[in-house]
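Q: I'm writing up a methods section and want to include an example of the input and output format. Could you take the sequence below and give the corresponding predicted structure tokens, formatted cleanly so I can copy it straight into the document?
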Amino acid sequence: MDYARQFIFASNPLRLSVRQWLVAGGVLGIVLVGVPCLALRLDPFVPGPDYRLPYDFSQDYWQCGRWIDDAAARDAVLVMGDSVVWGEYVAPGDALSGELNRLVGTQRFANLGVNGLHPVALLGLLQRLGGPIRDRDVVLVLNLLWMSSPRHDLRAAPAAGEGEQVVLNHPALVPQFWPVVPRYGAGFEQRAGTVVGRRVPFLSWASHLDATGAYGDSLLAESAEAPGAGGPQPGAGPEPEPRIDDPTPAACRGLFVAVPPPSPSPHGQPLTWEARGVPVSRIDWPLAEQSLQWRFFRGAVEYLLARGNRVCVLVAPFNPYVQVPESRARYDGLVADMVGWLEAQGGLVVIRAEPLPGNEYADASHPLAAGYARLAGELAADPRFRPWFTGGAPALAARQ
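A: Here is the clean output for your methods example:
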């Protein structure tokens, strides 16, 4: 018998006809698109007063997208930015949006701050999840911390040996191939996987389940470690070494764990920058045209304006007391150039916040509760900002 003639080269013994391939493709499409849509209906999202994205879900873009959809649907003023908006060292009601709501007497301002959302990631977030943000009132907060060093500005390439180990906030929101972000050192496989994940709702939902499952695991760990709960007790000796394998795998734990409400307490200790031991230092601020983060912040502004939004850019107060005099002078020049570009665009309001008293800063850029109250009061007193209180923000002006 001629066995060579009977051999059929194939990677899989199951061979489908064209019709079967079409059926398989249809079933796969239903899973990839239909299951996430069904999950939205089965998992109601009802944010409470002064809601903000829970800290443990800062990179859960599925949950972030739901919050953006809800806030935009309620016609709230969307306050967008990083942890300065989110309120790292204050309770939810004491962040900027909470203080503004307190002054206006209603839940008009929505806290869309996301921890670690540098301007490069901000533009990525808008491009990925900003569909509902059209013809809305938006307050965009600029935190110059992201320009304070080549590393923060992402214009410094990874040093030799760092490679993919470079810590980068929100890598999934960074451009993967173009434009080039020098600080982003991921390999091709990770970049390609991120691009695919952005376009497949099922993968975004699966990441959300990972986040909720990890949250559920942390709850179980806290319960096990509590005194009297049967876990490790104080003074009971060294903790066991971490395991790579999970003896009780629960791949679907995220299906049965609800996203928690935001913690009512500050995430970080509400201490002043002096009590925290932040040193006075020299900050080599770049020129505006050198800054990669500023380039992407301009892109975020242009994105919002192009979609008919009424935009107010608030330049957050950076702590002048942590800078030597030469750095403060360079900082003032940088801010002046940025404000000049913003004011030249037309169709938006630009407000540069006054520096806060030293005891109202928690670090170089985050206010404490008293600082947010002061900042909200200054905004309320500014006639340029009053329309954002009353709901009559000026229509988009013609751009030059």
